[in-house]
Amino acid sequence: MIRSDGQPIVGAAAMRAVEQHAIDAGTSVEALMERAGAAVAEAVRRLAGGAPVLMLCGPGNNGGDGYVAARLLKANGLDVRLAALSDPKTEAAKAARDGRDGPVEDFAKLAPDASHGAVLVDALFGTGLTRPLAAETATLLSMLTRHALLAITVDVPSGVDTDSGAILGKAEIAPYALTLALGALKHAHVLQPAAVLCGAVRVLDIGLDATASHDWTLARPKLAQPTPAMHKYSRGLVVVIGGAMPGAAALAASAAMHVGAGYTVLLGAAPDMPHALVQRAWSPEALAATLDGKKPEATAIIVGPGLGKGEDAAEKLEHALASGYPLMIDGDALHRLDAAMFDRIKARDADAPVVLTPHAGEFHAVFGAYTGSKIDAARAAAARSGAIVVFKGPDTVIAYPDGRTRTATQANPWLSTAGTGDVLAGTIGGMLASDAPHPVEAGVWLHAEAARRLGAAFLADDLAVELSKVRGAL
């Protein structure tokens, strides 16, 4: 079983193409099913601890994987009870069912507590389901899942859309403890609301190659430690442009300092800040003087946190964009972006990227409503704006203008508190001013890891401080 970080993500159509490539290369559907079933059986065997298994099989190839797994688990001495939703409808699934000894019960006739004391394995529906589960099927499955000693689903939870992560229909779906992704991660494993239903997600290697995908999950960054030759400016200069709400800009500045920036300047006022923070009154001249002679590869500007909607907000964004330095745009500044600014961003030097960090409301305000998955929406926004778009949320997606995306796996829900977005802006700004090879990805990962370490009921101020420990541990 492979952990989900740093893994490719594919949609239903892409997964079918990957499977077809293997078939064209000489691997039969039956052989792929045998591999998948064997991988599921081995994972379940290791986790069951000798407990009985209730295997639920659907009519498609996902059900076929379940038949194979049930046969192998029984051969390994486990007590396996198998129930089917209906007869198999594919030739490979029929062959898998016929290759198994023992009775096949009717799923609809199972008692709601039939899974009590057993490991439940849901192999009803996998990748590609497009219609809601029948109400009675969803209700019974939910009750069986809740009663199980351990609930495992094969590939994706039955009843969710593989590509968008949406729940199909209005039926309640009980969460699983573990999802066994066959061959590669799917969008439903990382996008809400499906992701929270998946529990822990592990990829099972069944000999398929999905590495050509443009979509991957976020991986732990590889960041170098400072060398003796470094000084405060080579460590990174971060300039935060303040505004009407000084607390937000202060949080961004604090995050930049705690994530390792060598020199942080706040152009604005913020009380009770560390003496290491340089504070100057805002003016275009102060910005120019701060940037004078500084290397673009070791400098970043942050504008937006606490900017407000005053008359000088547009001026501040304009000067930040005109500077030609790497730029982090968040909060109020996002609402001032337009098509002309997108054209200017696209015309920028590749060494001076612009990063946009909208939450859902800001995303809709800047880019409009979208259909399809959050990954596709972020990708389209990056192409349209020419910026790196960090579409924030419990399933944060980083999208690059060239079409690549990186999605962070389930975030700490305690991040849903005021100021954590400002901390993210400062974290990414600090990484933009550093020598990190993938600075935006590093910033998002560091922010999430700090939240994971803090656990629960923390303040955004705590999050900024925790970044020092996270950065130091890499």
Task: Note down, in words, how this protein is organized.
This protein has 474 residues and is α/β, with parallel strands linked by helices. Helix content is 38%, strand content 16%. The chain folds into two domains: 2-217, YjeF N-terminal domain (Rossmann fold), CATH 3.40.50; 232-473, Ribokinase (UDP-N-acetylmuramoyl-L-alanine:D-glutamate ligase, 3-Layer(aba) Sandwich), CATH 3.40.1190. The strands form two sheets. The protein has a twelve-stranded mixed sheet, with helices on both faces. An eight-stranded mixed sheet has the order 1-10-8-7-6-3-4-5, with helices on both faces. Helix 2 (29-48) packs across helix 3 (61-75) and helix 15 packs across helix 16. The longest helix is centred in the N-terminal third of the chain and has 20 residues, at 29-48. 53% of the residues are buried.
